[in-house]
Amino acid sequence: MSKPFNKEGSGKKYLKRKVQNRVNCLLASYNHNSQNNCMSLPSALHVNSLQPIAVSQSSACDLNCISNDGINSEILLNTQDTLQLCQPIEPLNYDSSDDISTRISDFSLELAKWAVQENVPLSTLGKLLILLKGDYPGTQLKSLPKDPRSLLRTPTVTDLRQLGTNGCYYYFGIHESLMNLCNKSVKLSSTDMFSIAVNIDGVPLFKSSNESFWPILCMVKSIKVLDKKVFCVGLYKGVGKPEANEFLTDFVNECIHLVNNGLLINSQKYKFRVSMLICDVPAKAYVLYIKSHSAFFSCTKCCLEGDLHKNVLCFLNTNFQQRTDFSFRNRSQSEHHTGKSLIENIPDFNMINNVPIDYMHCILLGVVKRLLCNKRYGWVYGKPPHKLRASDINSISNELLKLKKFIPREFARKPRSLIECKRYKAAEFRLLLLYTGLIVFRKVLPSKIYNNFVCLSIATLILVSKEFSANNIFVDYANDLYKHFILNSIQIYGPDFISHNVHNLLHLSECVKLFGCLDSFSAFPFENFMPQLIKKVRKVAMPLQQVVRRTIEQRQLGPLELNPSNSNRTKFLIKHYSGPLLQNCNSPQYKAMQTNEYFLNVSKVCDRFVELKDGNIVEIKNFATYQASVVIIGLIYKKSESFLKKPCNSSHFGINFISKIDNVQYSFPVTSISKKVMVLPYKNKLVSFPLLHL
Questions:
Q1: Which of 58, 97, 274 is nearest to 174 (CA)?
Q2: 392 contacts: CB under 8 Å, gap ≥ 6
Q3: For the whole prediction, is pTM greater than 0.90?
């Protein structure tokens, strides 16, 4: 085993000898190529230099240890022996002043983009500019601006509009926002239509203040490469809510203009429409001027009147008369309305069909949270006989924590203790409802309550899946399961369990038939955008002006970078040489694979299971090369029996017990992968779940 170099000992001597040999090689090469052959090499070069020597970059010798202005700060050439140069060494080639200015301009733009993307405060960016403009040898950044606001082209004046008595408002505009979104890399067809989804909701600014933001957020749903980009077209700041029609005036007027005249982008005119309004129940009532969830005629989809049981408004009847756009506009049920909304003026907008029910608030933060956290019926925070014993709650919590290492990376939030269910986010309730809850509740809940929970889970699983939600037979079956869940819940928990959110389960199937799977009209993308909006506020003073200026800075620096999600990209990552390999398989080998839909990693048990197109489950052990194409090497698992028998066999939806066939590894082409699956342990067995919500 070699010893590390000692800077003061033999290591330094070895480095000097190495540099001396390379310098001799350089001088020998120069002497060989010289036309006049006037250089006489000394018999030996000593590394105790008095004068440095310049070295040409065009030399073919390896000069990794030699700097441009000499050998080393401590290692220089000895000139004791006579060294005559009849022909000077070719000087270094420097860029012209035009090239330097161009590069500085490009650097300035990249620096500005970096500052905007990383949300760098102006004070910090100003200090960085001072450092970059400092008097350092070799730096050519004097032309950078001194003020960070000049670099970012921050507007000096923010034109806000007073709204109400204590609020202000800024309107960015739909057309301007879409112009910024559609850069030259976005390929649009002349037949494309810009169909947008709109979200309106409030978000508190500070914990110690009643001030809040009310943004108008939009997302293009009809163009695949843009369908994950949320942008803000209007923003209000004030104490409480603004008056809705005054708040929506600019937005509605522009929508009317764009629907009637078209949308002009890159010299091409496109059709435009507002396809859906996605809000939670209070925001929906606020925008549409209708009664909120605590009113007797509050349902936005039907004319059913609520009943009062134990001071709780509930909707018990599963048969009802549907609302229509005509009946809404004509105020057929006057008890449902509180006024007239400007949204009604938007052309080609159906006030019933184009206002779908968001499953994030309805099911996840509504029904599932009600089952766990309600002070009367909650399994964790309710009252007997519905509340579970403390030992059962601890048992479920321990099982959830054990499942944490089996949860794939596609889930941003891993399982937490059930005791923290009051602080669960919507994504955690979704994980519990569709996947982990079927495992952990089966061991503890009474069969009647568990089977009722399974009805809710399977129905939601059908509607959240792109595959099953496209089949109306499955959608109708999901609606029947929701009805069964409601009727059983009346028997188990009482009639006052059927709140506004529980009743809205009966209307989800119609929304799915109109728009597709539940995630096609969910509030998840808009809720994920809210923290980005709040992060633009860096201090307490003038929060709206800060957000407006940060947004304008971002838009002035050029279009947003888009990842073309419509192209099927497959990347192989993390090269290695540790195997395992089969016959005729060789390197390069990889540990991970990235696609648009999922990520696979052989190093983690949660990310290594896939289902092949033939239905077999494979635990991937390696990615290897076979005949110039990548294959997966792994163990085969076969599906045995259905995990659930009631209300139907869960094998119809890919939920099965699986077992390993043998310990022999096989290879399969990467193209044979159908989907990624999650495998969870249950009583010394394994259960596979396809990731249907992706």
A1: 274
A2: 444
A3: no
